């Protein structure tokens, strides 16, 4: 009986992507995206590796901030450029005391108020020594932690962090759109 369970366990491991195929898959995921976070809506774990090869705009959001209307512009960018390879990733945070809701409340607010459809992840820390691992890497790569809500980081198709923008830079700003279009023109 023990041998049967070892066989079943091995078969499950291989079917789930373990074994010889796992290192090759991990090698195609840039280090900056090699993280898993709970999805905002249902808290199911989501690997950021699924966005490898895309242009990624990472933003820390909050529901009760003067910059919160940027959710509408971020959704507009996502809708406009999604077919060309853009993904916007939202990370709600209460680091600056503007996000008191739980994940379900935040998800409802973003969807019902701003029509947010881009991927969002569970509320987490994005600033300081307790920042989530993605934000620690983004800060290390750029030398800049978020100073407030709606700080943005642009990751190119090849996984390099190519720019960051403070909160006052809107999703519609010429600088951000120009950088985004340049990165979208790069082929993986």
Quick one: overall form? Answer: globular
Briefly note the structural class of the backbone.
Answer: alpha+beta
The strands making up the biggest β-sheet line up spatially as 4-3-5-6
Radius of gyration: 18 Å
N to C succession of SSEs: HHEEEHEHHEEH
CATH class: Alpha Beta
Low-confidence stretches: 1-26
Helix share bin: 25-40%
Major β-sheet, in short?
4 strands, mixed
User: What is the strand content?
Assistant: 15-25%
- What's the number of extended β-strand segments? 6
- CATH topology name, in short, is Glutaredoxin
- Number of separate domains: 1
Distance between the termini: 48 Å
Q: Write out the CATH superfamily name.
A: Glutaredoxin
What value does the average pLDDT take?
A: 88
Which architecture name does CATH use?
A: 3-Layer(aba) Sandwich
Protein described:
The protein is an alpha+beta fold and 188 residues long. The protein has a single domain, classed as 3-Layer(aba) Sandwich (Glutaredoxin). Helices cover 36% and strands 15% of the residues. The protein contains 6 helices and 6 strands. It has helices spanning 2-15, 21-27, 70-81, 103-114, 133-142, 174-185; strands spanning 36-38, 45-47, 55-61, 86-92, 152-155, 161-165. The strands form 2 sheets. The chain has a 4-stranded mixed beta sheet with strand order 4-3-5-6, sandwiched between helices. β3 (55-61), α3 (70-81) and β4 (86-92) form a beta-alpha-beta unit. The longest helix is centred in the N-terminal third of the chain and has 14 residues, at 2-15. Mean pLDDT is 88; it is low at 1-26.
